[in-house]
């Protein structure tokens, strides 16, 4: 096997904004394989230890070789990073540490030239406390128009020294912080993330300007952060429960989450999206009850919504099947398409979730406890976790709809559990008084090569320390190994692009621990969740997460098979 060169570095010159779209297919997003880039941790081009936009551009050949249809970039805006960039100082600029708007335009052109669409993150529920508007709000008087862009209220108790309600923020601690003049402002996340008032027409108008700003630059779509939180009923007295219910339990009546009026906002956005050719797509991050998710995916609204069920599902056939049935059906309900997510920047990587004892039932809970112990307890079975992770990936890649992949999962990366307290950047750890470790462990910069100081990520040490074991997972190593996880992802994405056509049917297996479905073209996908090998249907195995033996699929594995005469991919 020849050693591939380092992922080629290409920097296009003379790029112009508003590039031609490679394709005008308005439905590209329905079946897209989207690769999530966490920009500060992807590739650093200027040697400061922080990933940047030109770093992304330099890795376009890698992204093209992976075979993804689109990238989604987590926020790259100016930010003090109180919440990893989800605290935005200016929605229409690039963080100077990450580059310039010109760099962004060059990146967009390079991605488009490679046939890859660009989705960016929009964070409309809250700005940062360094946003010009918030500075103006603090400087302005109570009841002023500047304060009305946010949610300011008088406190309760003598001298208003108590917050207006006892709501807690998602990261822990009170959801209200007192301003210097004694009023309180609402922040459902960190105090550095004041919630915007979506009843204010200027706020509404400004986000339309932002969407147009990026749409005009050639961005193909938007991932909408906390899409379920914008509309609020803040009529006083606040009668909602003292503690916020889990957003997933909201039914439309809670004052803060998943209110029906939120869809008026998205209907307005949809009109703007549809002015483009092809229309800009949007995908909602809506943490709502699964039965209400389709509202966000309505064609008159955002059009697509993340399905996060598999982030919670245990490694067992029944839980996967429930989720699949629900979402394939959901697609029909809202004329959208299903979405599949196994990892992202907010959760413990799926290779790790599936390698911990208890993964069959409550992998997320076990993984959170494991993180808190710095990875000591319970013992992680790395190989088992990776076997199951690739099996799950092949399963989701064979399903109808679009799939969202998170940077590093194609390398089989595990979560980094032993970051020291001093290195943690996520507010979750401190705001929860250490009862949650936070999300830094999946945000550690990815390894490109085997060399220190940062495995090809930067010329300098990375902004979050990378463990030594990252070297084994480096892209350079995996390029040279035909059996690597990276090569499996490449082959899977290539087959998927070639094979996927509308249609899906279960092929009921006698063994309830086996999931077997077919797609048009006699494409079968079989996943074995049981502890014993199982027989595969006759045909050509075109891809498998573990090589079948004597026509039998090993435990914790998925195989793709083409059945029928002369079956070839
Ligand atoms: C969801 C994002 O994915 C997460 O990273 C962020 O902390 C919250 N929204 C708040 O913006």
TrEMBL record:
Molecular-function GO terms, alphabetical: alpha-amylase activity
GO BP: oligosaccharide catabolic process
Listed InterPro entries: GH, GH13_cat_dom, O16G_dom_2
Record region (Disordered): 1-24
CDD domains per record: AmyAc_OligoGlu_TS
Pfam families: Alpha-amylase
Keywords: Glycoprotein
SUPFAM superfamilies: (Trans)glycosidases
Glycosyl hydrolase family 13 catalytic domain residues: 36-443
The family this protein is said to belong to: Belongs to the glycosyl hydrolase 13 family.
Protein name: Alpha-amylase
Organism: Nocardioides gansuensis
